[in-house]
Amino acid sequence: MDDTHKPAKGGWRDNIVLFGALAANLGIAVAKFIAAAITGSSSMLTEGVHSVVDSGNQVLLLYGQKRAKRPPDAARPFGYERELYFWSFVVAILIFAVGAGVSIYEGYLHIIDPEPLSDPFINYVVLGIATLLEGSSWLIAVREFGRTRGDTGWWQAIHESKDPPGFIVLFEDSAALIGLIVAAVGVWASHWFADPRLDGYASIVIGLILAAVAIVLARESKGLLIGERADPAVIECVRALVAARPEISSVNHVRTIHTGPQSIFVAISADFADSLTMGEGEVLIGQIEDELRAAVPQLSSIYIRPERKEDAVLSAS
Question: How many independent structural domains does the chain possess?
């Protein structure tokens, strides 16, 4: 058995998506609030809150990444990498409770008590600048996530991803760009039809978009927090390497769980040849562990249990 654990790697390159999104959202939030104060636009105020929430989310994800890099200790022998999954779940809750909640509430207030229309020019200017900044952040997120997904489809890659910051920022930026379009349509429609309530309806639509994004992110983060198996290709690779040893009669099961985005714990039950002595079995286990680490670097902890096939079947039933 090997309980060695490799702390999560990290650096500015790993966090480029988060830093890019944070810089864009901070600048956009200030501009949106100024525009909302001048024009009284509900959708602009909603978009300002949206950007503030996104900024807070990026800070939480950066904090979660920092906490996840702590080395294992007596209290957490497998390390702290799964703490990143907790903060990712918190981010999803914040998007739903604060982002969506405030947007819908602000839209409702603007509908029942609409403010007089004012010159929308500053709104269009801010929305244009925000689109450029959000678009830049979105392109960074798309490029970085695309670099890791390989040939896998986008939705499948998101569902199978074990690194929440990558797909969370991708979802946030996508929702932000859609929200900017909705806000622009709301500002235009309220002036074209001389009905300021339409701006409030746009705010509610933005809130519903954020709620939908939050639900998807919460579902993905919950799965990671509870514990997800490794990619089936990784499991089959481990099984094949162990089964290829002539001293192994059969591989009973291979069970895995992600303890972090790039860290996998694997438990292997295998039927060893009866002719092996205890000393030979210990040497064999060490050799198998070395082969597994070389073939699958993500294996941070390996547990190999010699077990007769018949006993493994009974214990699984």
Answer: 2
Domain enclosing residue 49, as ranges: 16-226
Q: How far apart are CA 94 and CA 77, in angstroms?
A: 30
CA distance 307 to 164: 36
120 and 194: one domain? Answer: yes
Instruction: Indicate whether 215 and 278 sit together in one domain.
Output: no
Spell out the per-residue pLDDT of the chain, length 317, in tens. Answer: 444 444 444 444 456 777 777 877 888 888 888 888 887 777 778 888 878 888 888 888 888 888 888 888 888 888 888 888 898 889 888 888 888 888 898 889 889 988 777 778 888 888 888 888 888 888 888 888 887 777 777 788 887 788 887 788 888 889 889 988 998 999 899 989 989 899 889 989 999 998 999 998 888 888 888 888 998 999 999 999 999 999 999 999 999 999 888 889 999 999 999 888 889 989 999 999 999 999 999 998 999 999 887 666 555 54
Given 183, 199, 226, which residue is the final one in a domain? 226
* Residue where a domain stops, chosen among 206, 226, 246: 226
Residue 281 lies in a domain: yes
Q: Has residue 7 been placed in a domain?
A: no
Give the CA dihedral 124, 126, 128, 129, nearest 10 degrees. Answer: 160
Please report the sign of the dihedral spanned by the C-alpha atoms of residue 185, residue 191, residue 136, residue 84.
negative
